[in-house]
């Protein structure tokens, strides 16, 4: 299998990624980066992540939802019962982005080629979902692009890409 598998997530200082099925921080540049990276590619997500999308399936990308319920309706998305089955359905050289949630990230971490994280320099007040630990013996920081706070971004953050060692 020659697919490129990237995990994309925004994490706070404690690796928190969500609360009550919502993102912890509203960062327009993070959303722009997400769109720029994933457009034209395949995105794989869990059912709850799909349900959290404000307008349903994301345009201009192949939406794949993982669910143990084969009868689930996810308009605009294909549904698979396992990450393995979803990955097997991908074409050669297809770039796949894993977009959440936590259990899908955990399953995908051993298979991923890169992590595209937005590391937010803040701690959310309430978090009920966390990103798995990024093991420095496995992952090498390839690039870091730091951004200060501004009128649209209430906390500083960095776009950090990790590759497998």
UniProtKB/TrEMBL annotation:
SUPFAM superfamilies: Dihydrofolate reductase-like
E.C. code: 1.5.1.3
Molecular function per GO: dihydrofolate reductase activity; NADP+ binding
Keywords: NADP, One-carbon metabolism, Oxidoreductase
Stretches assigned to the DHFR domain: 4-164
Oxidoreductase in keyword set: yes
GO cellular component: cytosol
PROSITE patterns membership: DHFR_2
Keyword Zinc-finger on entry: no
Entry superkingdom: Bacteria
GO-annotated biological processes: dihydrofolate metabolic process; folic acid metabolic process; one-carbon metabolic process; tetrahydrofolate biosynthetic process
Listed Gene3D superfamilies: Dihydrofolate Reductase, subunit A
Pfam families named among the record's database cross-references: DHFR_1
Pathway stated in the Swiss-Prot or TrEMBL entry: Cofactor biosynthesis; tetrahydrofolate biosynthesis; 5,6,7,8-tetrahydrofolate from 7,8-dihydrofolate: step 1/1
Catalysed conversion reaction: (6S)-5,6,7,8-tetrahydrofolate + NADP(+) = 7,8-dihydrofolate + NADPH + H(+)
Family: Belongs to the dihydrofolate reductase family.
Role noted for this protein: Key enzyme in folate metabolism. Catalyzes an essential reaction for de novo glycine and purine synthesis, and for DNA precursor synthesis.
PANTHER family on file: DIHYDROFOLATE REDUCTASE (PTHR48069:SF3)
Designated name of the protein: Dihydrofolate reductase
Organism: Bacteroides reticulotermitis JCM 10512
Lineage: Bacteria, Pseudomonadati, Bacteroidota, Bacteroidia, Bacteroidales
């Amino acid at each position: 299998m020659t697919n490129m598998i990237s995990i994309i997530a925004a994490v706070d200082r404690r690796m928190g990624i969500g609360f009550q099925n919502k993102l912890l921080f509203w960062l327009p540049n993070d959303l722009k980066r997400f769109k720029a990276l994933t457009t034209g590619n395949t995105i794989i997500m869990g059912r709850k992540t799909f349900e959290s999308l404000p307008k349903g399936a994301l345009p201009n990308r192949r939406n794949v939802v993982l669910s143990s319920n084969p009868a689930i309706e996810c308009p605009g998305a294909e549904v698979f019962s396992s990450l393995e089955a979803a990955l097997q359905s991908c074409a050669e050289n297809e770039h796949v982005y894993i977009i959440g949630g936590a259990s899908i990230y955990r399953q995908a971490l051993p298979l991923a080629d890169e992590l595209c994280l937005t590391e937010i320099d803040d701690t959310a007040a309430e978090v009920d979902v966390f990103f798995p630990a990024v093991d420095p013996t496995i992952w090498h920081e390839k690039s870091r692009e730091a951004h200060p706070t501004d009128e649209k971004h209430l906390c500083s953050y960095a776009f950090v890409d990790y590759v497998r060692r």
